[in-house]
Amino acid sequence: MSLKKKSNTSTSTSVSTTASSPWEKYENPEIAQKLIHYIKEKTAPGMKFMEVCGTHTTNISRYGLRRLLNEGPELVSGPGCPVCVTDPGDVENFLTLARQKNVVLTTFGDLLKIPGESGSLSTARACGADIRVVYSPSDAVQIAAENPGRETVFLGAGFETTTPAVLLALKEAIRLGLNNFSLYLLHKITTRAVHHLLETGGTSLNGFLLPGHVSAVTGRHAWDYISELFGLPAVVTGFALNDILWGIRCLSDLNSRNEAAVINGYQRVVKETGNTRAQELIKMYLEKKTSAWRGMGEIPASGLFLKEEYAFYDARHRFSLPPPGKISEPEGCLCGEILKGNRRPFDCKLFAKTCFPEEPAGPCMVSSEGACAAYYYYEKEA
Question: What is this structure's pTM?
Answer without folding.
Answer: 0.87
